[in-house]
Batch of 2 targets.
Target 1
Amino acid sequence: MSQTAAPLTATDVHRTYHLGGHDLPVLRGVDLQVQAGEKIFLCGQSGSGKTTLLYVLGGLEKPTQGDVLVHGKSLYHGPAKARAQMRNTTMGFVFQHYFLLPELTALENVCLPAMIGGKKAEARARELLDKVGLSKRLDHLPTELSGGEQQRVAIARALINDPGILYADEPTGNLDASTGSGVIDMLLQIVNEAKKTLVVVTHDQVLAKRGDRRLILKEGKLVEE
Ligand SMILES: Nc1ncnc2c1ncn2[C@@H]1O[C@H](COP(=O)(O)OP(=O)(O)OP(=O)(O)O)[C@@H](O)[C@H]1O
């Protein structure tokens, strides 16, 4: 895997869903190149395909045409196992609904992606939870945490394997404005410090101005602002 190649390149990406005998072309030729350390915000109307694109970029949704290269290596022209491994080692994900496992504590949730890869991660998980301001919440279950705190745990979890690329799908969508703004401040601080590449889907136009580039998904293609 070439570390000098751009961390993320999408070439002529199409994604069509087939529903009830009809084709629904959502992505219709997306081209995108993201440089190391860049912060990209993806906007567009509801239903324009933002989440679909994020999932395609993150190896979670196979495009019907085109490909995504991560550090020059194809995500989709290889076995699913290789894709899963690339996802686990080079990418971290933050979702609107957090998706923490309810029966695990904050510390255990953060450790989980590393344990899946056979690594011990408790010390790093403690460090990350400290970084997101939750060193006093290690043993709390998700139900014992506020929405903003749960999202901070999810951010720490996304960072546990030290991925170069971080994807966030409406990370503030479930939070009030001030909590959401605090979560984004923290996310951007971590990303800037660690020089990670960030791709965020958001409806929030104010938030979208905080990236290096704002891209709009329109009629299945990306338009740069
Ligand atoms: N698995 C699926 N099967 C069929 N259609 C789907 C599927 N996933 C998404 N779609 C459709 O694809 C279109 C784009 O969905 P997507 O969730 O990517 O949009 P979005 O821009 O993220 O929307 P929102 O801002 O409302 O979250 C929508 O019309 C949706 O109904």
Target 2
Amino acid sequence: MLVDGFGREVSGVRVSLTDRCNFDCVYCHNEGLGDTRGPMEPAENEMGTEDVVRFLEVASEFDVEKVKFTGGEPMLRDDLEEIVRRTPDDMETSLTTNGTFLPGRAEGLREAGLDRVNVSQDAIDREAFAEITESGAYERVLEGVEAALDVGLDPVKLNMVVFEGTVEFIPEMVEHVAANSGLQLQLIEYMPEIAGHPEWAIDIERVHDWLAERADRIEHREMHDRRRYWVNGGDVSSEELRSSDRSSGRSPREDEASGASSDSSDGGMVEIVDPVGNETFCANCHRVRVTHEGYLKGCLNRNDDLRSMGEMTRDEIRDAFREVVHNRVPYYGEYMIRDGDGGWEVNDEYVGA
Ligand SMILES: Nc1nc2c(ncn2[C@@H]2O[C@H](COP(=O)(O)OP(=O)(O)OP(=O)(O)O)[C@@H](O)[C@H]2O)c(=O)[nH]1
Ligand SMILES: C[S@@+](CC[C@H](N)C(=O)[O-])C[C@H]1O[C@@H](n2cnc3c(N)ncnc32)[C@H](O)[C@@H]1O
Ligand code: SF4
Ligand code: SF4
């Protein structure tokens, strides 16, 4: 396995299959590449099926254990099933999608070997959903989640970006996953770095505190040092979540977890993904990314380290992979460092590098 200069093994790759999308979520970072707006037809600059498969075969040579397919909307690719089928057997395959194309295709993906799926659902409310995603496909997304569960792609993780426009729906979403054993919830801290609008962010510690008060059990996940809360339904009113009161009356059991635990006996699982300004998150980051155009990049938040894989021969892919891993730096704490006022600024060492 390749290891970067900060001792981080590269065990996973995130492959963006397209930057096209049928939604236009107001917060979208498009995996670090910005706007998803544009024509929906297949674009010439996208990696072809053979390129993606060859890349995954080389990644497997480097003992990469998992691949996440993402985008844009990865299900706009008609060859997704073929890509999943041809992914090396020793790699766990997962997909992050807006869910609209899962009805009708979930079974094929399962048969092709897909192991897991994350579906973005920011609210249990049709109107709010339409406002956030600039799409009227709310029912279609719910159908997509059902389709995934029906073919045994469970647990399905629901991805919810936590920002001003969604915070009020957290209690209902927690209740929703607590009541449905096939579902888990992932609360993703809004990242303004690429999407802009820093004023939309809310203090994610409030959400941690709110969940800690209600959790029967808390787990630590080694990846990104993420915390998982196991919450039963019941009193999940959002009042405290909206207020800044941080008093915590309970001490839930706290366990270590290295893998994807899914014991539903303790209630619904809620995981918080909180990268913003989080040096510990970056210190536990084991993934390299590939853009739809076939560039490798070492960090979601950076585009100054893009490395082309050229004509995508195996040797070119190997060289690019080694180089990108060699150049990886933790974004927070190394690339971005504290300025005198407690904010973040680019480390001089990397300016123009
Ligand atoms: N800054 C940063 N954000 C990340 C990283 N990984 C995931 N995220 C954020 O979390 C979002 C959802 O991630 P998913 O694609 O659902 O996958 P995941 O939760 O990382 O992976 P699994 O839990 O294994 O399914 C991403 O699009 C990012 O917004 C990362 O390495 N760095
Ligand atoms: C870029 S989308 C691509 C996959 C697919 N279209 C989807 O929405 O699931 C991947 C994930 O990134 C999350 N995301 C997008 N922009 C974000 C931002 N600014 N901050 C935090 N998460 C974001 C989305 O909620 C989604 O779960
Ligand atoms: S569905 Fe995914 S890729 Fe499309 S705009 Fe929303 S977050 Fe971005
Ligand atoms: S280094 Fe940090 S910001 Fe960059 S991808 Fe990894 S966790 Fe995210």
